[in-house]
């Protein structure tokens, strides 16, 4: 009996002593943290994807609390809803940002862009692009080895086995920008999703001269400036033989699409045209699928 | 026991089938393409424009920056245009297109075949001539030679090592050059010794080139300060650090230059080019290229002007075999696979290796079985399988701690791996990333 | 373009070495030991080995195909090795159903549940043996006498050398019979000589390096040698320890398993010394007469740690320049 008592007593004393020490240490080294940081963090999606430019949701939360204004802070995963919530917690107002989505600016399918050699190295775009221009005549286009797919934490981008090009799943894409960083050819761009997902963009990044570009790919932008001339809103710029549509200025009038001699400007999710519809593009169907 | 380097190494089948073929010249085509980036470092600035007449030896690209090398016209004719052209890098880069008319040389070049043994120029003048002639490392690295011969002021070169190892299987261009231009190479060696102010030079030759070892042993009788050192056949003995270890027993530590152990290494081809530049005023406009392969009809060694399309050289060797799967510029271990044979010979083209389809394809990669064979063969004493994993998972800090930047990309790990893992593919990628991170940290 | 060229990063040649070749080399190296087992135990040796291989290969095929739903990669030969090694580690009269359980554990739990060849932490054959030893101690420690009379295969049980050494040291057999393998014991651990032949073959083929087997054997010899110097009892005789029990089989074939042994030379030496030390500790002071399997299993567990703390000797790191 006394053994039992001794054991209980000893353990009790040790326990109480430890608790006291823990309490004192806890008081002594207490870190005062703004309680709002936790509150903000709780309202974030907890994806820790880094899409906001911070290492994770926790650091984004503390940046939100510390920042003077919310202008440069945006959680691409949570979107406007989340940012409104965060702003409400902090008693500020979130600026309205348009929802963005990843866009693959290459349409060099096996039909459009013939393969000239067989790549047989490790299945990794960065390795292949460090080796050479790629398995087609276009040294700017997609290599199709899927670095973007590997980088995506939301399973929102896949390589289509027929075209060998990546396709974005609109519902899943959070515009976190991981694929943009992963692509060694800088093909993927974050663009405004547009009303009803309607978008117009130049699906090419080839900076070769027109003739060279056209020779290697049927749907390459040849920098002919026709789209620039027809655009009523000055949304199209041409640099290094390559057209670019500024999605802030573009009003989705679609005038540039039919004038493009190489069909390198794509329109997505628009209703079919009444007068002289352009040849149906299979890419539209697959991208929205 | 023959000397060799002490860590790792492999011995692939040598297959030097073109070793006995005397060097032959190739005809100059109607048009040549001269890339403006044939060396490591900044590309040249073109100094000619469309319509300009050029002679053999006319400067057409001027080096910009410290690490860069001049480029001269290898033909006479008219500049057609300066445009992008595909080169061995696999990308389209700036190049000078020249229409060939006749074969008129610059007057300053001494074209007589006689050997000019005596060089009484001061070291600075020698270096100046080497830089002006646009000489780069001919072993394949194409590092500008005048930069390599200008050691930092606090370092002192003690020994010059001439690299006649040619450890890559198949290639024989250096071997042929040694057999045919031994005297010039020895004079070139004395010139480099003078430029560096060193008293001793050793020519390292692997033991599979008995004839070259014999020839140089005889010839060096007239040169008391030059020795020949036969070496055990072992890849990658031609690597600078490995060769220094093999010959002097000194190891260059991580990140340091060979000069830190008092050694400077020059390839035999480079030394020959130095001879021609200093004694004959001839810039680097041609080189020996081995064209070889299992199915090649007439494996041969060709003295080719820079800018001749590789397809012409292949035709001279009996044409492209039906079974061709892969065309490699350089040797099978470190050479670059080409997407097209319509690219020009450049200063660094040591050989063209044609591999049949059946042997060209890699086998599917399996899981690592941790057999540690890659560790055993790595000549730098690294852990290739760990480095590959760290690269795959982008753990750059650990990759740096495990010295990924020491990798010399010799390919011994991938060559050996029984699970066919593309170790070097990933390590090369990781090395580039880590080097970038280190550079960014310094700035 | 009439012909598509293949483009890949260097190197463009391969040694031709494959996982299969290495695995089949191990199998070839096991042949002498198998012949000795056949000679000593006759048909029993064949039955046990064949059924063990069959179970291992069969379980691997079934599990990979129907549970993991992947393409079975039996051709790499690793399941065959596991089967042979497990058979070599059991008495020749072990009931086949017990053996089947061991195979299932080795392949299903130890190997495939970790991801298959290359990803397992423990050597499957060793773990399978220990699983059987713990689950069926009686069957696993009764060995039939060598050279059974025809027709009476499941006759007398005999002690192993180590058992005798530990519990009845006066009845020790001669060193010569241990070397040749005419004393009782598990199937494959009979003849130290046959196993050493295998070691020579593996070293010649460069399938393994000398570091692991030599460091194990050297540690055992060193350890017992010192004890023998002070106290020359048969219990401490280095040669008896080297040539008896599973030490040789373990040192040459089980500890050198690529997947579960360290990758650096330094690490291999540490690992081998560890196995030698633990083996001797169990043999001399433990409850079991034999401890090689436990030693290997323990060091398998330490392998990732050893890998983490040893790195290969780098170029230019240690060498004194001069």
Explained architecture:
- The complex is a heterotrimer of chains A (289), B (443) and C (322).
- By secondary structure, chain A is α+β, with helices and mostly antiparallel strands.
- Chain A has two domains: 56 residues, 3-methyladenine DNA Glycosylase II, Chain A, domain 3 (Orthogonal Bundle), CATH 1.10.15; 189 residues, Alpha-Beta Plaits, CATH 3.30.70.
- Chain A contains eleven helices and nine strands.
- Chain B has 14 helices and 17 strands.
- In chain B, strand 13 and strand 14 form a beta hairpin.
- Chain C contains 14 helices and three strands.
- In chain C, helix 2 crosses helix 3 and helix 5 packs antiparallel against helix 14.
- Classes of the chains: A alpha+beta (289), B alpha/beta (443), C mainly alpha (322).
- Chains in contact: A-B, A-C, B-C.
- At the B-C interface, strand 15, strand 16, helix 9, helix 10 and helix 13 of B face strand 1 and helix 1 of C.
- Strand 2 of chain A pairs parallel with strand 1 of chain C, so a sheet runs across the interface.
Q: Return residue spans of chain A where pLDDT drops below 50 for at least 5 consecutive residues.
A: 280-289
Q: Compute the CA-based radius of gyration of chain C.
A: 21 Å
Please, what is the oligomeric state?
Answer: heterotrimer
Structural class of chain C: mainly alpha
Q: Within the largest sheet of chain A, what's the order of strands? A: 1-5
CATH topology of the largest domain in chain A: Alpha-Beta Plaits
| Order of SSEs of chain A | HHHHEEHHEEHEEHHEEHEH
User: What is the CATH class designation of the largest domain in chain A?
Assistant: Alpha Beta
| CATH architecture name of the largest domain in chain A | 2-Layer Sandwich
Unreliable residue runs of chain C: 149-156
Separation of termini of chain C?
Answer: 57 Å
């Amino acid at each position: 009996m006394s053994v039992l008592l001794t054991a209980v007593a000893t353990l009790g004393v040790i326990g109480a002593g430890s608790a006291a020490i823990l309490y004192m240490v806890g008081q002594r080294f207490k870190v005062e943290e703004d309680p709002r940081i936790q509150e903000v963090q709780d309202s974030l999606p907890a994806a820790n994807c880094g899409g906001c430019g911070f290492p994770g949701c926790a650091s984004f939360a503390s940046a939100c609390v510390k920042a003077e204004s919310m202008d440069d802070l945006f959680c691409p995963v949570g979107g406007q809803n989340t940012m409104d919530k965060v702003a409400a917690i902090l008693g500020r107002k979130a600026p309205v940002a348009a929802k963005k989505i990843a866009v693959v600016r290459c349409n060099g399918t096996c039909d459009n862009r013939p393969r000239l050699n067989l790549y047989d190295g490790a299945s990794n775009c960065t390795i292949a692009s460090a080796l050479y221009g790629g398995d087609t005549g276009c040294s700017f286009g997609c290599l199709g080895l899927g670095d973007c797919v590997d980088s995506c934490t939301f399973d929102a981008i896949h390589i289509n086995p027929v075209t060998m090009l990546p396709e974005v799943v609109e519902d899943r894409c959070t515009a976190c920008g991981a694929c943009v960083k992963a692509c060694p050819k800088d093909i993927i761009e974050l663009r405004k999703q547009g009303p009803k997902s309607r978008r117009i963009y130049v699906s090419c990044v080839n900076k070769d001269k027109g003739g060279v570009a056209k020779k290697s790919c049927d749907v390459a932008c040849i920098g002919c400036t026709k789209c620039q001339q027809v655009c009523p809103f000055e949304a199209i710029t041409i640099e290094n033989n390559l057209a670019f549509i500024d999605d802030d200025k573009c009003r989705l009038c679609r005038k540039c699409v039919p004038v493009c001699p190489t069909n390198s400007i794509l329109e997505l999710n628009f209703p079919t045209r009444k007068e002289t519809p352009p040849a149906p593009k299979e890419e539209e169907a697959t991208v929205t699928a | 026991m023959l000397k060799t380097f002490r860590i790792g190494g492999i011995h692939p089948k040598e297959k030097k089938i073109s070793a006995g073929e005397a060097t032959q010249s190739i005809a100059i085509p109607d048009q040549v393409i001269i890339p403006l980036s044939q060396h490591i470092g900044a590309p040249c600035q073109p100094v000619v424009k469309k319509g300009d007449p050029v002679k053999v030896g006319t400067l057409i690209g001027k080096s910009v920056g410290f690490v860069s090398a001049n480029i001269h016209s290898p033909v006479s004719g008219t500049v057609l245009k300066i445009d992008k052209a595909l080169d061995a890098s696999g990308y389209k880069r700036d190049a000078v297109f020249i229409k060939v008319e006749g074969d008129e040389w610059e007057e300053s070049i001494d074209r007589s075949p006689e050997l000019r043994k005596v060089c009484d120029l001061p070291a600075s003048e020698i270096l100046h001539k080497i830089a002006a002639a646009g000489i780069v490392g001919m072993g394949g690295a194409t590092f500008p030679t005048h930069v390599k011969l200008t050691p930092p002021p606090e370092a002192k070169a003690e020994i010059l090592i001439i690299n006649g190892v040619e450890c890559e299987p198949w290639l024989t261009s250096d071997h042929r050059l040694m057999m045919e231009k031994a005297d010039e190479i020895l004079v070139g060696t004395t010139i480099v010794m003078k430029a560096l102010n060193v008293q001793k030079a050793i020519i390292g030759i692997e033991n599979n080139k008995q004839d070259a070892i014999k020839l140089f042993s005889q010839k060096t009788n007239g040169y008391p300060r030059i020795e020949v050192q036969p070496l055990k056949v072992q890849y990658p003995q031609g690597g600078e650090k490995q060769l220094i270890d093999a010959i002097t027993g000194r190891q260059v530590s991580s990140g340091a230059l060979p000069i830190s152990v008092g050694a400077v290494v020059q390839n035999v081809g480079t030394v020959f080019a130095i001879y021609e530049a200093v004694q004959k005023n001839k810039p680097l406009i041609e080189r020996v290229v081995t064209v070889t392969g299992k199915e090649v009809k007439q494996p041969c060694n060709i003295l080719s002007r820079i800018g001749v399309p590789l397809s012409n050289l292949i035709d001279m060797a009996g044409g492209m075999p039906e079974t061709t799967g892969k065309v490699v510029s350089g040797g099978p271990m470190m050479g670059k696979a080409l997407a097209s044979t319509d690219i020009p010979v450049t200063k660094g083209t040591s050989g063209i290796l044609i591999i049949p389809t059946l042997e060209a394809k890699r086998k599917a990669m399996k899981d690592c079985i941790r057999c540690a064979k890659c560790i055993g063969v790595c000549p730098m004493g690294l852990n290739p399988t760990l480095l590959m994993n760290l690269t795959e998972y982008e753990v750059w800090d650990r990759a740096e701690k495990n010295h990924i930047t020491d990798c010399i990309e010799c390919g011994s790990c991938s060559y050996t791996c029984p699970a066919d893992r593309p170790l070097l593919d990933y390590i090369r990628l990781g090395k580039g990333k880590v080097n970038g991170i280190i550079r960014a940290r310094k700035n | 373009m009439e012909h598509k060229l293949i483009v890949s990063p260097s190197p463009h040649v391969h040694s031709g070495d494959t996982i299969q070749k290495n695995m089949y080399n191990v199998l070839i190296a096991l042949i002498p030991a198998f012949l000795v087992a056949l000679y000593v135990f006759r048909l029993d040796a064949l039955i046990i080995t064949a059924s063990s291989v069959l179970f291992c290969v069969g379980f691997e095929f079934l599990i990979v195909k129907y549970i993991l739903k992947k393409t079975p990669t039996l051709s790499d030969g690793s399941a065959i090795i596991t089967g042979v090694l497990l058979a070599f580690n059991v008495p020749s009269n072990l009931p086949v159903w017990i053996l089947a359980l061991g195979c299932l554990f080795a392949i299903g739990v130890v190997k495939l549940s970790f991801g298959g060849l290359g990803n397992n932490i423990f050597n499957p054959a060793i773990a399978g043996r220990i699983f059987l030893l713990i689950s069926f101690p009686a069957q696993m420690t009764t060995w039939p006498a060598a050279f059974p009379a025809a027709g009476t295969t499941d006759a007398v049980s005999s002690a192993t050398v180590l058992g005798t050494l530990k519990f009845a040291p006066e009845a020790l057999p001669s060193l010569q019979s241990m070397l040749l393998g005419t004393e009782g014991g598990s199937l494959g651990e009979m003849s130290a000589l046959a196993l050493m032949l295998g070691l020579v073959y593996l070293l010649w083929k460069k399938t393994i390096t000398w570091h692991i087997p030599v460091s194990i054997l050297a540690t055992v010899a060193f350890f017992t040698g010192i004890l023998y110097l002070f106290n020359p009892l048969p219990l401490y005789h280095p040669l008896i320890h080297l040539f008896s029990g599973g030490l040789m089989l373990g040192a040459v074939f089980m500890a050198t398993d690529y997947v579960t042994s360290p990758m650096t030379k330094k690490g291999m030496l540490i690992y081998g010394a560890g196995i030698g030390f633990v083996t001797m500790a169990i043999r001399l002071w433990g409850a079991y007469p034999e401890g090689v399997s436990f030693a290997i299993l323990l060091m398998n567990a330490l392998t990732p740690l050893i890998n983490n703390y040893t790195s290969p000797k780098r170029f230019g790191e240690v060498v004194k320049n001069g």
